[in-house]
Design brief:
Layout: E1 68-69, E2 79-83, E3 86-89, H1 90-101, E4 107-108, H2 109-136, H3 142-153, H4 159-168, H5 173-191, H6 200-209, E5 215-216, E6 219-228, H7 235-253, H8 258-265, E7 276-280, H9 287-295, E8 305-307, E9 310-320, E10 323-324, H10 327-357, E11 360-362
Parallel strand pairs: 1-4
Antiparallel strand pairs: 2-3, 2-11, 5-10, 6-7, 6-9, 8-9
């Protein structure tokens, strides 16, 4: 029977998925008019960075309640909880809490209590799973971790973007690999129970019900070379940028390779990829850029095109008409997504069983009862609507 020293409510799923924080590019330099927000997705080139995205970091050892309205709390020393007599260090708890309170905004005391309970619940669930994995003798090889880590990095378009993610995402290579190892161990534990199989019939049924989500919309694949112009450029700055883009145009007309010139001269984040922007559809680029690109033939290179970002030279690499992807094209993607769905369902069931059987002691004060109409712990601030049936996971790299 599960014994609690302090009972709390709420449910927060164990956060072990390897996708996490969206990444930001330092330069809003491509002609993208607007980037579609997605969890863990990185803004496309040209998208406006989120307001207040760069948060101030607290001084080392600062009280996490310093930004809390009316807070007079002090830190707990020793264990924050015990799971089957195994202590969870309070240092681990406060390390997680500090990441939230470091953002600078004032946090009402009631909401902070909910946040604290959510963190504690997540750490308890993590320990429950660790013990279950250890008991079952599940092992994760280093080669599995390294392979998954390399796949994780591919979600970023360049090494520079990945480095920026590490810099601003409050994560490290070690913490990423730790999450990968934890998730893989849990997957193996669930797989050992035989609950993760996805049949081809299940995948075909999903495809048939959601064919509309497997349309490749008409689009253009293009590369570009950008010479930036400041927002409030002087006539001299405007002329200097125009002269530079014309000199680049002359190089291209003389037979220089577009990708090589883009890597050397372009001032946009896509420069390391030879200016490659990938496929984009209508409405994804600023109007002058889009109109020019869609009017060009495959293989054609434009003259200078002025947008609010500066001067571009555009090369159209490919064009496509709208088409529906076949089942064979998306089969692996669907099966992996259905497997992920089963994983989360089985994980929830596993945790519920482990919690019932475990002896859990909590040393964090019980939060005050929520006001009428207030959200229960574990449910505040998500803002998710209905989930789209499209099973593709979002990636940090984002589109340009």
């Amino acid at each position: 029977m599960n014994r609690y020293r302090i009972l709390t409510s709420g449910a927060l799923a164990l956060a072990m998925a390897t996708t996490t924080v969206g990444c930001k590019k330092d330069e809003p330099a491509t002609p993208v008019e607007q980037a579609k927000p997605a969890e863990a997705a990185k803004p496309a080139e040209g998208a406006k960075p989120a307001e207040g995205a760069e948060a101030a970091k607290p001084a080392e050892g600062a009280d996490p309640h310093a930004g809390v309205e009316g807070a007079e709390a002090s830190r707990i020393t020793g264990p924050i909880a015990k799971v089957n007599d195994v202590p969870i260090a309070s240092d681990e708890f406060y390390a997680e809490l500090d990441k939230i309170t470091a953002r600078g905004a004032k946090i009402p005391a009631e909401r902070l209590s909910r946040i604290e309970q959510n963190i504690l619940k997540r750490l308890i669930e993590k320990e429950l799973v660790r013990q279950a994995v250890e008991k079952a003798g599940v092992k994760v090889e280093q080669a599995e971790i390294d392979s998954a880590y390399e796949e994780y990095k591919k979600r970023f378009q360049t090494d520079e973007q990945f480095e920026n993610y590490l810099k601003h995402g409050r994560v490290t290579v070690e913490s990423i690999k730790e999450r990968i190892a934890e998730k893989r161990a849990l997957e193996k534990l669930i797989e050992s129970k035989g609950n993760m199989t996805v049949t081809e019939d299940e995948a075909k049924e999903f495809y048939a019900k959601n064919e509309r989500f497997y349309l490749d919309k008409a689009g253009v694949k293009a590369s570009h070379i950008l010479i930036k112009v400041p927002e409030k450029a002087t006539p001299e700055q405007e002329k200097a940028a125009l002269d530079k883009i014309k000199a680049i145009e002359a190089e291209l007309k003389a037979g220089k390779d577009f990708e090589d010139v883009a890597r050397r001269e372009s001032e946009g984040p896509s420069a390391p990829k030879g200016g490659d922007l990938g496929f984009f559809g209508a409405g994804q680029m600023v109007k002058p850029f889009e109109e020019k690109a869609f009017s060009m033939k495959v293989g054609e290179v434009s003259g200078p095109v002025r947008t609010r970002f500066g001067f571009h030279i555009i090369k159209v690499v490919d064009k496509r008409e709208e088409r529906k992807k076949t089942f064979e094209e998306v089969k692996d993607q669907i099966e992996q997504s259905l497997k992920n769905k089963k994983f989360f369902q089985e994980r929830r069931a596993l945790l519920e069983g482990l919690e019932k059987e475990a002896k859990i002691e909590k040393f964090l004060p019980e939060p005050p009862a929520p006001a009428p109409g207030a959200m229960a712990p574990g449910h505040e601030g998500h803002g998710h609507g209905a989930e789209a049936p499209e099973p593709e996971e979002e990636s940090e790299g984002g589109g340009e």
